[in-house]
Amino acid sequence: MDYTQPRHVETKLAGRALTIVTKPGFPGWEGVSAAQELLAHHVRAMPGAEVALLGCGHGALAVALAQQWPALRLTLSDPSVVALAMAERTVAAAGLRGVSLPERVSLLPERAASVDLVVIEAPQSRPLARRWLVEAFELLKPGGSLYLAGPNDQGIQSIIADARALFGSVGQPGYGGKARVAQALRGSERGTPEWAAAGGIAPGTWHEMQLEVGGEQLALRSLPGVFSFNRLDEGTRLLIDNLPELAGLRVLDAGCGYGAIGLVAARRGAALVDMVDASLLAVAAARATLRLHHVELANVLASDVLHAVARRSYDLVLCNPPFHAGKHVAYDVAQVMIEQSRAVLGPGGRLILVANRFIRYDQLMQGLFERVDTLAQTRSYHVLAGTVA
């Protein structure tokens, strides 16, 4: 199936039929989760209530809630621009009007203490879940409700414990499908667990790092939910350590994360650096990292794979492709990223990527590039270069 084409999936949620518009590119894109089923059955809202969904995915839960509770004023938030695009299509297919889908990493401070109900489908990342819990507390009016659900095998019990530490008490109204749902009420006082003040979790803050990158000590800013948000992963380090001469080149950092590769390219004299990522958290962090270093000749764009730069041309594409969607191994995004990288490279251009050695991207690249070389390898990773004739 064509990765770029959304699929219309007929399903049911809370016993009601609905159409999901979805595509690969974000966790849970395939259908309705057990956590969404629990939330659809247990959330209680007043007609006309202000409701914020953090981690809205493809929007099915928003439609299910709107079907049950008339005239809800819905705000849908998700780190993935792919998920937001699909949620917009899903709510349109259901005929919902007035749904807000801001491309932002946070609804604060503008929406502070203005929301009656916050609904969270817990992400796999516990630090990101904690960030959302703090945001939920700040968004809610006094007496407002938080509903939280997630699968047992992804740590929902620990996230519920975090909610209890923040909100003071948590009820657990239901479980099923190997998932659990919890409810908390916002009181006048917020709990003060140590993690709630951590950088990147507390509203308006960053996770700050000083890391050795490419032979330099560099300050970097990141956020929970970004790949390897609190360290430089070994694959990226191997790629940076094997970069060619970059002076004067037009460089694309594809799947930029918090911006380490693009920052190094800019500091080593690239004529132009574009950086793209489907995660709004990554885009915000990469922009913050570039500002920290006063880098002006670099652009960071939110993009489904390379869609945002499809009409541009580069000398070099650098990439640490994703191969996970949630807990599952999935190569859809990585394969399309490689194919689209070939399309944006000019004559003599190169794609240089790093991957786990068990992933045979070299075989895919040999069908797209005139030459494929292994630039470096360790027991765990290899750096591959595909060259355009």
The number of distinct structural domains comes to: 2
Mean pLDDT: 94
Instruction: Kindly provide the name of the CATH class of the largest domain.
Output: Alpha Beta
Q: How many helical elements?
A: 10
Order of the strands making up the biggest sheet: 13-12-11-14-17-19-18
SSE order: EEHEHEHEHEHEEEEHEHEHEEEEHEHEE
Description:
With 389 residues, the chain is an alpha/beta fold. The chain folds into 2 domains: 7-197, Vaccinia Virus protein VP39 (Rossmann fold), CATH 3.40.50.150; 207-387, Vaccinia Virus protein VP39 (Rossmann fold, 3-Layer(aba) Sandwich), CATH 3.40.50.150. The protein has 10 helices and 19 strands. It has helices at 34-42, 60-68, 81-93, 126-139, 156-167, 234-241, 260-267, 280-292, 332-344, 361-366, and strands spanning 7-13, 16-22, 50-54, 73-77, 115-121, 140-151, 171-176, 179-185, 207-213, 216-222, 250-254, 272-277, 298-302, 314-319, 324-325, 328-329, 345-356, 371-377, 381-387. The strands form 5 sheets. The protein has a 7-stranded mixed sheet. A hairpin with a 2-residue loop joins strand 9 (207-213) and strand 10. The longest helix is centred in the middle third of the chain and has 14 residues, at 126-139. The radius of gyration is 22 Å and the shape is globular. The protein starts with 6 loop residues before the first strand and ends with a strand.
